[in-house]
Amino acid sequence: MQNNQHKDEWDEKLELKLEELKQCQISLGFQSCNSCDKFFECELRKKYVRTVYESMNKGAGGGFEF
């Protein structure tokens, strides 16, 4: 996102969750979540993924098809 664009609440929440996730990775000495034994059970990662979806649809709900 460019600095001159206005960030909405969804972008701000996403940045916060990403920072939380990065701090967790740093504290465990990982470059990504893939190396973590708790990859599939991690609540922090689940919340981050949920926040990514919410930022993509701006909280409108619904699903995504890939």
Layout of secondary structure:
Layout (H helix, E strand, L loop, with lengths): L8 H20 L14 H15 L9
- Percent of residues in beta strands? under 5%
The total count of helices amounts to 2
Unreliable spans are: none
Give the biggest beta sheet. Answer: none
Structural class: mainly alpha
- Ends apart, CA distance between termini: 23 Å
What is the gist of this entry?
This protein has about 70 residues and is mostly helical. The chain has helices spanning about 10-30, 45-55.
What does this structure look like?
It is flat and about 35 Å long. With 66 residues, it is mainly alpha-helical. The protein has one domain. Helix 1 runs antiparallel to helix 2. The model has no long low-confidence stretch (mean pLDDT 86). The relative contact order is 0.15.
